[in-house]
Sequence to fold (681 residues):
Amino acid sequence: MLSSVISTLFTMRFIQAIIRMSTPILFAALGAFVAASTGIGNIAIESIMTFAALTGVLGSYLFNNAVVGVLFGLVIGILTALLITFFSMKLGADAFLIMIALNTFADSVAIFVLYQITGDKGTTASLTTPILYTWDIPIIKDIPILGEILSGQYVLTYLCWLIIIVLFIVIYKTPLGMRMRACGLNADAARTAGINVERLQVLSLILSGVFAALGGVYLSLNYLKIFSKGMVSGQGWMGVAANGIANGNYWSLVLSAVIFAVFRAVSIIFSSNSAFPTDLVGAIPYFSVFVILTVVSIVNYYRVKRGKVEEN
Amino acid sequence: MTENKNKASLKSVLSISNPKVFDAVKMMISILIALAITFVVLCLVSSNPVNAMITILTGPLSKTRYIGAVIESFIPYAFAGLAAGVLFSAGAFNLGAEGIFILSGAVVTAIAITPVTTSPVLHPILCFLGAMIFGGVLMILPSFLKAKFGTNEMVVSLMLNSIYAGIAAYVVRTFLGTLKRGGNSSKDYLATAKIPYLYQPLRITACFFLLIAVTIILYLVMKKSRLGYQIRLAGSNPRFAEYSGISAFKLAISTAAIAGVLSGMGAATCLLTQTTFYTPSQSLVGIGFSGMLLSMLGRNNPIGIVIAAFMIKYLEQGTAVLYFVDTSVPSEIVAIVEGIIIMLISSQHFLRKFRERRLLKEGLEEHAE
Fold:
């Protein structure tokens, strides 16, 4: 029983599944990271993904074109980010409260819209929507093992990898990235050095909204091919958790997101085997986030503490 | 002379410069804006928006049992709001009430289906105690990790919500379940565990009075006691609280414990009055999360939170009444109202210009006198 599950862990299909599943978590993690780089904790990723997933399907349905759907999702991601900045920067509200409120009623708003358009409160299954395609990379697809893994993924997955590389270069190798990180490290010092902190923070929040929205449209236009209630199921929060674990280290951000995806994939394999209790198996990804986050913070705590002791 | 003075003091009490009056005015205007936006939404979706609006606002008053439904259903939400209010007052972003509700629901169920006692008074009390102790202990975990190791309590508590939901579903299915109802629900509660109605038409139970008592006690604790002062201080200015010798660690643990106890209480009130069995994937889902919104609506004030809970449940009942005649408006529209009000009242600068202008004018008038 267990051996049959374990044997599926080392197949090509499992690695492909991890690549597929890590995409939305990576997008969410990038969103959390880019906002955090200028010192903003964007915890509204989950709700932006929900909004974008729904509007993505609707845009694709209305214009019979999946690319328009993606644009719809991006627009709603940017609008949500602007809504947050409007309330927190212009009206002086606590950004955390605004974002918690957004997350809490995102599902209700999505259901309201869904019901108006489809007459159904659960999914967009009744709408026939064009979806985004997979992409076979010309030469790589013929390489035996590598081709099977790298080729034939969804287009947004390739975009995700591209963004990972580009964002790394922008944040760590360009003046703009340096300025953004300066805002995150010490906003007052950055301001003294003549950096327009507020403008960079708005920019990073918009970028964060864009990445989160890409994660959302990936779910509804690539991965599951419909919008369904509660489909984001904590993947946005996994991105936020990955950012918390990484603590400013870019590659451990990417690694944590992939690890969370591995646990999601494991959970799905276990739940397809009736010998394991589905209720508990379904909680594996969340449990992995909880354990990893807690262990990392405990290790950091003792590292700092020991450092202090040595200083004395 | 005295008359003049009295007049002046009355004027200053009612004037916009009084922060309490300003808050009330701001709340009113926020509600009006939210209702106006709701009306616009209704115009888009409903064929008869004016009627729909009137039904949402007055529908629950049309029949006694509608008001009864509001009174019965708002109680657990009010408890969830109180729990969130305590945590938010202390500046703790522990969002774990949702999971505590669902898991302590399983505890209530375990006690309610076991013939531990034949007394119809003692049995519900045991259910309550079980849920309260359990909730109080479990709620501490994220706050402990945050206070001791600096772990992100928001992410931890959200992950725990999903974990607790999984555990509750597993426990109910495996140990408390019955093959009836698709295997997802528990056995029926024993008659002794149920809380009877004191006044059937309005569905008033002892839980109603429990809520009032808890609200008053919590209000007094938060506003008048040493602990409440420390909690609010830690929430508004954590560094000052630390320098004045308040132990942030102890405070985090005690606020989490209070919130957990309140959540457990809320779960018990819901299950022992509104249902006869427990379905973890349905019965208590969403109450803990709604509590956070209610706490923001009530501005962390226990009495405000209870009023907010009643108001929101009233509006939901209004949409339910509307649904009988007009199926184009689902109850989720209440979330839109709620969201707009929350965003506006938590905006410090909203109406600030208006207030400043009034203050300036008043100051000039006074000067002229």
Summary: Chain A touches chain B at residues 43, 87, 90-94, 96-98, 100-102, 104-105, 108-109, 111-112, 115-116, 121, 234, 237, 240-241, 244, 277, 279-280, 282-283, 286-287, 289-290, 293-294, 297-298, 300-301 (CB under 8 Å).
